[in-house]
Amino acid sequence: MLPLFASIRADVSKSRRTQVSGRWLPPGTLDLEDLYSDLSMLPLCGSNLLRHLEKNKHLKFHGRNQLALLLKGVGVEFSQAERLFKARFTRHPDPSVTADEYTKKKRNYLRSVRGLYGVDSGKNYNPYCCDKIISWPRPARWQCHGCPYQTYTPDALRPMLDVMGIPRGEQTGILHAASTAKPKTACRLVFEASQRAKFDGPDVSHPHDYFRQARGVVRAQAALAAQDEFEADGLYAEAG
């Protein structure tokens, strides 16, 4: 990961905007490296796509679009997203696709990412909301898109919740919500179990609402840790 991040960090604008316009963060607000360092800020649909891309080196159509627009909405600028996809798209899951054929396909994939960011057209494609993601057909072979709480069985979800550090005792309600066709409720319960904070809303209705609130929790925790360190340093200075 580090060589890629070292190269794309140089492309980030020095003057970053921190004001939020509506639901989305402005491009350049968030480094891809910072996002990778704490995937708990992303809902499972986002972290699952990134892990799938890392492992399988490819994403099919819906997955590419879902991830590209997610990155755009959380403030990852185009140059970083483009380099991520360029570096990670290295093989097609179908072994019958030759290297030359995949090279041609890869150019089209990268053009589609460029189009979703509106680099040339100036069009503003918004990231998908939960209802849109849930409405898609379930992933078929080689696909990884949609809402995990809708598309995965409880047995498949449990290891993912383990990775997120959610205790087994707290997984029961999450898995029940997922298995009873309440994916947005399951997502809210995951937020509250993983972030140790209440979600501001009845349920999660958009991945970026999850991200923004989780990012707020992470920032608040970092501020508290810094304050504790400052106060501890002050006590040591007084004692000396």
Explain what you see.
By secondary structure, the protein is mainly alpha-helical. It has twelve helices and no strands. It has helices at residues 2-9, 32-37, 44-56, 61-73, 78-88, 99-116, 130-135, 148-151, 154-163, 168-179, 183-195, 207-239. Helix 4 packs parallel to helix 6, helix 9 crosses helix 10 (168-179) and helix 10 runs antiparallel to helix 11 (183-195). The radius of gyration is 19 Å and the shape is globular. The protein starts with a helix and ends with a helix.
Task: Tell me the layout of helices and strands.
Elements: H1 2-9, H2 32-37, H3 44-56, H4 61-73, H5 78-88, H6 99-116, H7 130-135, H8 148-151, H9 154-163, H10 168-179, H11 183-195, H12 207-239
Helix pairs in contact: 1-5, 4-6, 5-6, 9-10, 10-11
Please count the helical segments.
12
Distance between the termini: 43 Å
Radius of gyration: 19 Å
Write the H/E string, N to C. HHHHHHHHHHHH
Strand tally is 0
Backbone shape: globular
Strand content: under 5%
Largest sheet: none
Helical residue percent band: 55-70%
